[in-house]
Amino acid sequence: MKISHVFLTKGVGCHKEKLTSFEESLRNAGIAHLNLVSVSSILPPGCRILSRRKGLERLEAGDIAYTVLARNQTEEHRRLVASSVGMAVPKDAGTYGYLSEHVSFGQTQKEAGDYAEDLAASMLATTLGLEFDVDAAWDEKKEIYKVSGKIIRSRNITQTAVGRQAHWTTVIAAAVFLLDADA
After folding, report:
1. pLDDT, tens digit, 9 for 90 and up, residues 104-138
2. What is the pTM of this model?
3. Which one-letter DSSP state was computed for residue 47?
4. CATH domain 3-179 topology
């Protein structure tokens, strides 16, 4: 089984039932019709990144989809929840990259997204032997990574929402892998 492509998606759901709130977030993300299998944080070498639309076009109802999934929920009125997946892609297509999951309360979309992206890039940087100050701000580390020429890009997908009274609010962010049809 060879993973050839990945796409990022996000969603939010709100319902009086916790499980239904999660289901609605999956629907909003476009992946409720899939059987999701959670995997860890490695972006396979040579894995191509697709748009959400192109990725979803390759999947049919009932397909098994390997995902890196960040999920957060609240039943607390006005509580800000966030879920984010960060991605770091190495310049060398023969080298693996990293994905990270991050969930939080009270962080804005930018804060949660930057944090997840920083996590993924930092994990990749350590495997590539890049030296950096772990306590430095994300913008500073990003410059070090760029200058090194070893990390081609990083990104994140993040969903935030504010809880509603007497309802569960669920936010998800996911990296969904697609298998090579020829493998």
Report:
1. 999 999 999 999 999 999 999 999 888 878 888 88
2. 0.93
3. P
4. Pyruvoyl-Dependent Histidine Decarboxylase; Chain B (3.50.20)
Q: Which residues neighbour 150 within 8 Å (Cβ) at sequence distance 6 or greater?
A: 90, 91, 92, 125, 128, 130
Read off the pLDDT of residues 61-77 as tens digits, 9 standing for 90 and up. Answer: 999 999 999 999 999 99
In the chain, domain spans: 3-179
Angstrom distance (rounded) from CA 10 to CA 44: 21
Q: Which of 25, 32, 22, 31 is nearest to 178 (CA)?
A: 31
Each as own residue / partner, the long-range contacts of residues 26-33 (CB below 8 Å, 24 or more positions apart, any chain) are 26/172, 29/172, 29/174, 30/56, 31/56, 31/65, 31/67, 31/174, 31/176, 33/59, 33/61, 33/62
